[in-house]
Amino acid sequence: MSTTSKWLGSVDGDARKRTLLGIGSFLLPLLVWCLVSYVPFVWHPKVHVIDPGGVDYFQVDMLVDKTMFADEVANMEREHLAVPTGKSANPIYLPAPDQVARAFYNGFVNPPRSKDVPSMPASLWHSIQIIFWGFLISSIVGVPLGILSGTYTLMGRLSEPFIEFFRYLPAPAFGALAVAILGIYDGPKIAIIVIGTLFQQVLIIANTTRKLEVTLIEAARTLGTRNIKLLSKVVVPGILPDLYRDQRILLGWAWTYLIVAELIGTSSGITWFITQQARYQHFDNVYAAIMTIGIIGFGTDLILARLGRRLFPWDRTQDRR
């Protein structure tokens, strides 16, 4: 067998191993969830009432504490009345995996139970638009400013002290101000995502730019490369793989700010859907919506990672992930 064939076999083996470990990282929490949900002696602090018997305040499908249920069983036996029956169950806020799976399916196939609550796909699409515009505006400002701050010392010293100060201010604190300036609709939501990611973005990209080999910049300057040409021909191509990776991470931050952003102004988006479902105690829908956010975020990151390998095949750091 040739050296090339051995190397290709090793690469395929590593890829399979990473895939199996990735699948395992999801299967282990799922296994714990199944154990907690389906094995009664693991953790089932409630009793799901099947027949209330002689207990006047018990109702079918009611959840009661095990100690309360045991006391009522003893009372009914003592009074020679019908004994209630039930089975071990978890609290309502911890639905089983099959319940969440059904809620996930129904959320995308069937209309919502309440007319005043938008469907899950409509809520999710609205949130994706908020994320898109917020992160796009943040990147249009943050990426060039970060590259300039990392390339030119004067620019960095002029801008970064204020940015360092501002990044410690919580973005939600600007919610009332954003509503006063931008109205009650999507404007303040987008603004919160911009505030939450812009200043972090400038500092991270500036730090990434400074990691570029100084000798490359010095050599370019020696050959007469200056200003825009230095940035476009040397700096940006040199940091592009790391810049791309930074943006992937920062996009995840934008999703974390979405929940806070959507609580401002008008009620809309996936956060409103989750809040309403929790209010009606439809916790299976709550879990399904939260997991949908995770699936979209994680799926987007996987697609971007694969795209990054295509765009930057010379970046070997991607092979270690």
Structural overview:
The structure is a single chain. Strands 2-1-3 form a three-stranded antiparallel beta sheet. It starts with a helix and ends in a 10-residue tail after the last helix. It has helices at 3-38, 66-78, 97-109, 120-151, 153-166, 175-182, 186-210, 214-222, 227-261, 269-279, 283-311; strands at 46-51, 63-65, 85-89. The mean pLDDT is 87. The relative contact order is 0.10. 70% of the residues lie in helices and 4% in strands. It has eleven helices and three strands, in the order αββαβααααααααα. By secondary structure, it is mainly alpha-helical. α4 packs parallel to α7 (186-210), α4 (120-151) packs antiparallel against α9 and α5 (153-166) packs across α7. The longest helix is centred in the first third of the chain and has 36 residues, at 3-38.
- Detail the poorly predicted runs: none
Radius of gyration, whole Å: 27 Å
Label the structural class: mainly alpha
| Helix content estimate | over 70%
Summed up, the helix count is 11
How much of the residues is beta strand, in percent? under 5%
Shape: elongated
The SSE order reads: HEEHEHHHHHHHHH
- Taking the alpha carbons of the first and last residues, their distance comes to 28 Å
Q: What is the spatial order of strands in the main beta sheet? A: 2-1-3
Give average pLDDT, whole number: 87
Largest sheet: 3 strands, antiparallel
- The beta-strand count equals 3
